[in-house]
Amino acid sequence: MRPFHTNGGCSEYTGRAGSPTLRTSSDGECRKTNCPDCRQEVYFIRHNGGSVWIDPPLGPPWGLHGCMDRRVPNEERRASISSKKPFLPTNFGDTDDLFGVVVVSEIREDRSQTLLSIEVGEKEKLVVLVGGGADSFLGKMVRIDGAKAQLYGLDDRRLFLPILGAACIPPNLKASGKPLPGKIKASRAKRAVQTNAEKQAERTRKLTGRYQQHGLDEAWTVGQLIQLLGALRGAEKDHVAQSTALKILKHASETGDCSAAAALAAELSADRRARLKIWLAEFSPIKLRLDIHPFTARVNKHSDKSFEIANAQNALFYGMPL
Ligand SMILES: [Zn+2]
């Protein structure tokens, strides 16, 4: 599995490109820099359509940095950055709180959890998994109460989301001694916001790897084999489909449940599924219906056919004449 970040830094985390649930803000930032005039260390914050330079520490009472406050924006700055002062409430939060601007949000499909990457004035971003749909925080400043594990927007102090854990904490924050939310594994955070399609693709990748390494053995379940089939082509797919069909036949003869035959048919080409239908009719009382969607399979109790496992083993379903 690809590591969450490659060299231990939180800035590596940018989510998975192309994911439909991933959003990135281009007009929010919160970074430590040096004042262009006096070279002192300042925090530059951009959110809410405005920007401001703050003297450390990053938080209330939000001391505006003198030089930049007096300075008339030059043409270049005026073109890129509004001189409007963003909203920074001085009476909200205390010195133990963390502040930052959300620059990446990745929301779970059911909107029950969101992974937020937050610029907190450090080289690395703070990455937290929160309960609830929090993509509306993108590009906005948030306050984090680490002791209570709660995340607030600055607009409405009554609204907060529970922090389920921090997947990435910048080393300087750890060293600051401020209370921080508990750590969770990066893999858990990543899984929490994976789309169903991505989860499906990852399972298929794992099954394909297992098949390439170990081939087919008794341990494969019918469900796993059917999923594996989606990643196979040609003779290899026929070979695995034959094993799957036999497993389904044996299972059906023992339990009367043949529903997996319909799922198998759905993974096959039209030609192969037509031959599967004939093969099943030849060696079992299973009736596969391909004329309805989704396909169905049931054991026909009135059929005079019985399960002929041994004969079925000697006949390739994909070789059955149409
Ligand atoms: Zn200055």
Describe this structure in words.
The protein is built from ten helices and twelve strands. It has 322 residues and is an alpha+beta fold. Helix 6 packs antiparallel against helix 7 and helix 6 (222-229) packs parallel to helix 8 (260-267). It has helices spanning 66-70, 75-80, 171-176, 186-192, 196-214, 222-229, 234-255, 260-267, 270-283, 309-313; strands spanning 22-24, 29-34, 41-47, 50-54, 98-107, 113-119, 126-131, 141-145, 150-153, 160-168, 286-289, 296-299. 31% of the residues lie in helices and 22% in strands. The strands form three sheets. It has a six-stranded antiparallel barrel with strand order 5-6-7-10-9-8. A three-stranded antiparallel β-sheet has the order 2-3-4, with no helix packed on it. Residues 1-12 and 78-82 have low confidence and may be disordered. The structure holds zinc ion (ZN).
Give a concise summary.
The protein has 322 residues and is α+β, with helices and mostly antiparallel strands. It has helices at 66-70, 75-80, 171-176, 186-192, 196-214, 222-229, 234-255, 260-267, 270-283, 309-313; strands at 22-24, 29-34, 41-47, 50-54, 98-107, 113-119, 126-131, 141-145, 150-153, 160-168, 286-289, 296-299. It has 2 domains: 10-192, no CATH class; 196-319, no CATH class.
Helical proportion, percent range: 25-40%
What is the typical, i.e. mean, pLDDT?
88
Oligomer: single chain
Structural class of the secondary elements? alpha+beta
Order of strands, widest sheet: 5-6-7-10-9-8
The main pleated sheet reads as: 6 strands, antiparallel, barrel
Work out the count of structural domains. Answer: 2
Element-by-element helix/strand order: EEEEHHEEEEEEHHHHHHHEEH
